[in-house]
Each structure stands twice: as C-alpha cells, then as structure tokens.
Write a structure and sequence with these properties.
Protein name: TetR/AcrR family transcriptional regulator
CATH superfamily of the largest domain: Tetracycline Repressor, domain 2
CATH architecture of the largest domain: Orthogonal Bundle
Number of helices: 9
Organism: Streptomyces sanyensis
Keywords: DNA-binding, Transcription, Transcription regulation
Number of domains: 2
Oligomer: single chain
Helix content: over 70%
Pfam families: TetR_C_31 (PF17940), TetR_N (PF00440)
Largest sheet: none
Length: about 210
C-alpha cells in the first residue's frame, strides 16, 4: 500500500470525522471510529493530529469555513438592506434544516468546547469569524444601498445572530415544532428596526 503523507491524510480524516459525527453525533467521534470511517489504523489519527481535541479543533475550523462561505454566497448583490438580511436568514436556516450541512454538528461541538479547554480557542474563533463576516456584509450592503445604520454594524450583526441562534436551539430542542417562516420574518423585521433606529435602546435595561 503506498504511503500517504500527513498533509494528504489530514483533510481526509477531517471529512471522515465530519461524515461520522454528522451521522451519529459527537459522542460517536472517537479516534477509533473516525479511523474506521476512513479505513485506516487508529494510530494514523494520532500521528496526523496528535490528540482528539486537535482533530476536533480542525473539524470546527472546517465547518466554520464552510458556513461562512455559504453565507457569503447567499448575500445578493442587487437587493436592498432588508432583502439582504432576509436572504442571509434564509440561507442560514437551510443549513439548519439540511441534515448533512454540518450546522447541527458545529452547534454540538461548540457546546462541547464550553467544557473542553483544548477547544476554547476554536469556539472563540468560530464566534468571531461568523460575527465578522455578518458585520462586513451588513456594512457593505448599507453602503451599496444608501441605508443609514443608526447602530454600529457589529451590534446589528450580533443582534441578528443571537436571534437566529435562539431559533436554531428551538428547532434542535423541539424538532416536532419547527420554526416557521413568520419567525424568520420577525427576526428580519426586528434586525432592520434596530439598524434603522426603530428600536429604542435607551428603554432597554442594561447590566452592570
């Protein structure tokens, strides 16, 4: 059997891990099972990545990159500000509903990372990357369409993503009661209201 370098084996193992854990959940993602998914020895996983946490970290990076690329492709070049947010919400929601999209797996890994020190950096990088690309799209859309942002773009992006994450968790916790179109439309409307100054933030109590 020809030798396969670690550089070649790395993306193969990442994809094998994603396929396995998307199908069976994070708990099934042992190095032994991931190796079996690809048809290699378990030692190959440790030789290539060192530890399971190192592999999981690269899995999170790959899934985040895939998600960001999908969001960027979904951003229309000729829609208004509200239409762009609606397109982003729709594209993101399709990743939630598609079993093989990896979104559910990324959510599971993010939860695991809260109690896994070796994954904390990957969790933070995922959060920042998704926020930054959303903020950039909102800023570019506002500039292109002449929409005046009444609030900083990073605040609007965080608000939108926090609302979307809430809908996502509802969908994952109660799959028999799926989020419908009106929930997404309400999120879009609330985000536009915040961005345009229609939400009075002075009336909202602050912490600290």
């Amino acid at each position: 059997m020809p030798h396969v370098s670690a550089a070649e084996r790395r993306p193969q193992l990442i994809r094998a891990a994603i396929t396995l854990m998307t199908r069976e959940g994070v708990a099934a993602g042992s190095t032994r099972a991931i190796a079996a998914e690809l048809g290699v020895a378990q030692a190959t996983v440790h030789y290539t990545f060192g530890t399971k946490e190192d592999l999981y970290r690269e899995v999170m990076e790959q899934l985040t990159g895939d998600l960001v690329a999908r969001v960027e492709r979904a951003a229309p070049q000729d829609a208004g500000f509200e239409g762009t947010i609606a397109a982003l919400a729709g594209a993101l929601w399709r990743t939630v509903e598609e079993e093989g999209s990896g979104y559910r797996l990324l959510t599971e890994l993010a939860m695991l990372a809260l109690r896994t020190p070796g994954l904390g950096e990957a969790r933070t990088a995922h959060y920042r990357q998704v926020n930054e690309v959303t903020e950039r799209i909102l800023s570019e859309t506002a500039a292109r369409t002449g929409f005046t942002l009444a609030q900083p773009a990073d605040l609007v992006a965080r608000f939108f993503l926090a609302g979307f994450e809430g809908l996502t968790m509802q969908r994952l916790y109660v799959p028999d009661e799926p989020v419908n179109g009106s929930d997404l439309r309400a999120l879009v409307a609330a985000t536009v209201a915040l961005a345009s100054g229609g939400l009075d933030l002075t009336a909202v109590p602050t912490t600290g």
